[in-house]
TrEMBL record:
Cross-referenced InterPro entries: DNA_methylase_N6_adenine_CS, HemK-like, N5-glutamine_MTase, PrmC_N, RF_methyltr_PrmC, SAM-dependent_MTases_sf, Small_mtfrase_dom
GO BP term, pick one: methylation
Protein name: peptide chain release factor N(5)-glutamine methyltransferase
This protein's UniProt keywords: Methyltransferase, S-adenosyl-L-methionine, Transferase
Entry GO MF terms: nucleic acid binding; peptide chain release factor N(5)-glutamine methyltransferase activity
Length: 304
C-alpha cells in the first residue's frame, strides 16, 4: 500500500466529510479534518503526506464518527474557552453554550478583583472541571472549589484542573445540593457557578447525547427537569455572602420558574441571560447586590 501524498490526504478528508454529512453529523468538515489530524498526529495544513497505514486508521475513525460516536470520545479531548481538556466516556461532554455561562461567572469574579478582593468561587455539579478550570485560568486571583458527586467525573475534573491550573482548584466529591457539603464556607462565597443536570424527562432528541452522555449528568428530575436546579439555587443561597452572585445554566423553558425559585430562596435580584443563539440559557441572581449586573438581553425579575 502506497503512502498518501498531500493531495490524496485532502481528497480523503473531503470524501470523509461527505460521509459524515450523510450520517447527520453537525460539523462534518470540521470533524473529518480533526480525525485526520488525530490519525496523522500533526496539523493537516502542515502535512506533506502520511504513513502507509494512515488510510486504514482514518477509515476506522471515520466509521466510528459515522456511527455517531462523539468526536470528543474518539480523539480523547474537548475544547472549552480556548483550553484543551481530556474527554472520557462516562463523563458529560461540555457544550459550546456553556462557555457563555462560564464567561458570565468569570466577569462577576473579575469585578470583585477590580474592587480589590480575591474572590472565592464555587462550581457546583462540576462535571469534567471545564468551568472550574476556566475560572482558575482566567481569574488567577480567585480561589476555586469544585463539587461533583460522580466518581468518574470528579476524577476527570481533578485531572483537567490539575493540568490546566495546577494547585488552583480544589475538587471535592460530594452532593452539590447537600447542605453539609462545604458548610464551612456558608455565607463566605463570592460567586457560585453551576451547570447542573436540568434536562426535562424525555426531552433529548440528539442521538449522540441520548446514547453517550450519562443520565445522571443530564436529567434534572421530574417532568420539568427542575428538581436539581432548584436544589442548587437553594444551596447557593446558603453559600453566598451578601452581594454574592449565582450563575446557573438551565433549559430555555425553565427561565421563569428558576427566577421565581431564586427570589423565594432569598436572592434580591434574578435575571435570565441568553446564549449566542438568542435562547434563554442561564440564571443570574444576587444576594443583596453590592454592584448590579450590567443590562443583558432577556427577561428579569427584581425585588426593590
Amino acid at each position: 500500500m502506497s503512502a498518501p501524498d498531500r493531495y490524496q490526504l485532502r481528497r480523503d478528508v473531503r470524501a470523509a466529510a461527505r460521509r459524515l454529512a450523510a450520517a447527520g453529523v453537525a460539523c462534518p468538515e470540521n470533524d473529518a479534518r480533526l480525525l485526520a489530524e488525530h490519525a496523522l498526529g500533526a496539523p493537516l495544513l502542515l502535512a506533506v503526506g502520511a504513513d502507509p497505514d494512515f488510510s486504514e486508521h482514518y477509515e476506522a475513525l471515520i466509521a466510528r464518527r459515522e456511527g455517531r460516536e462523539p468526536l470528543q470520545h474518539i480523539i480523547g479531548v474537548m475544547w472549552f474557552r480556548g483550553q484543551e481538556l481530556v474527554s472520557r466516556p462516562g463523563v458529560f461532554i461540555v457544550r459550546p453554550e456553556t462557555e457563555v455561562v462560564a464567561g458570565t461567572a468569570i466577569e462577576a469574579a473579575r469585578r470583585m478583583v477590580a474592587d480589590g478582593a480575591a474572590p472565592l468561587v464555587v462550581d457546583l455539579c462540576a462535571g469534567s472541571g471545564a468551568i472550574a478550570a476556566a475560572l482558575a485560568c482566567e481569574v488567577p486571583e480567585a480561589r476555586v472549589v469544585a463539587v461533583e458527586i460522580d466518581e468518574e467525573a470528579a476524577a476527570l475534573a481533578c485531572e483537567n484542573c490539575g493540568r490546566l491550573a495546577p494547585g488552583r482548584v480544589e475538587v471535592i466529591r460530594g452532593d452539590a445540593t447537600d447542605a453539609q457539603v462545604l458548610n464551612d464556607l456558608d455565607g463566605c462565597v463570592d460567586v457560585v457557578v453551576s451547570n447542573p443536570p436540568y434536562v426535562p424527562a424525555e426531552a433529548i432528541e440528539d442521538a449522540e447525547t441520548a446514547r453517550y452522555d450519562p443520565d445522571r449528568a443530564l436529567f434534572g428530575g421530574g417532568e420539568d427537569g427542575l428538581a436539581v436546579p432548584c436544589a442548587v439555587v437553594h444551596r447557593a443561597a446558603g453559600l453566598l455572602r451578601p452581594g454574592g452572585a449565582l450563575v446557573m445554566e438551565h433549559d430555555p423553558r425553565q427561565s421563569e420558574e428558576l427566577r421565581d425559585a431564586a427570589l423565594t430562596a432569598g436572592f434580591t435580584m434574578a435575571e435570565t441571560g441568553r446564549d449566542l443563539a438568542g435562547r434563554d440559557r442561564y440564571l443570574r441572581a444576587e444576594r443583596g447586590a453590592r454592584r448590579p449586573f450590567s443590562s443583558i438581553p432577556g427577561s428579569g425579575t427584581r425585588l426593590s
